[in-house]
């Protein structure tokens, strides 16, 4: 079973940056999709950024501020110009093939507050 561990979350002030890392237990060089979601209490988990078949896409509110990237075993989310509304638990996922289920990490808390 593929295991994912997120790291890099924390407490920052508005306008600051964070880099999240998702370490995957298997080689993901040929994975169909990887990405990041986030969730706040009482709301559904929402997609933040994904790489699907090599194409990157972003949720509108993070476009231009967040950058997703990957290598063979890790997925990254560079977050700049953070806002209070970016506060959430961030989860990474990997989908090895188009038919496969998503594997999820346990999440990492990001809090943006002055």
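^ structure tokens above, recovered residues below v
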């Amino acid at each position: 079973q593929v295991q994912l561990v997120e790291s890099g979350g924390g407490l920052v002030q508005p306008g600051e940056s964070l880099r999240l890392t998702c370490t995957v237990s298997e080689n993901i060089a040929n994975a169909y999709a990887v990405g990041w979601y986030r969730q706040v209490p009482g709301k559904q988990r929402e997609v933040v950024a994904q790489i699907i078949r090599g194409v990157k896409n972003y949720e509108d509110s993070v476009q231009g501020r967040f950058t997703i990237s990957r290598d063979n075993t890790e997925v990254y989310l560079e977050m700049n110009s953070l806002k209070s509304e970016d506060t959430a638990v961030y989860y990474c996922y990997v989908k090895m093939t188009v038919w496969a289920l998503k594997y999820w990490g346990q999440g990492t808390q990001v809090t943006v507050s002055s």
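The first strand starts at residue 4 and ends at 7.
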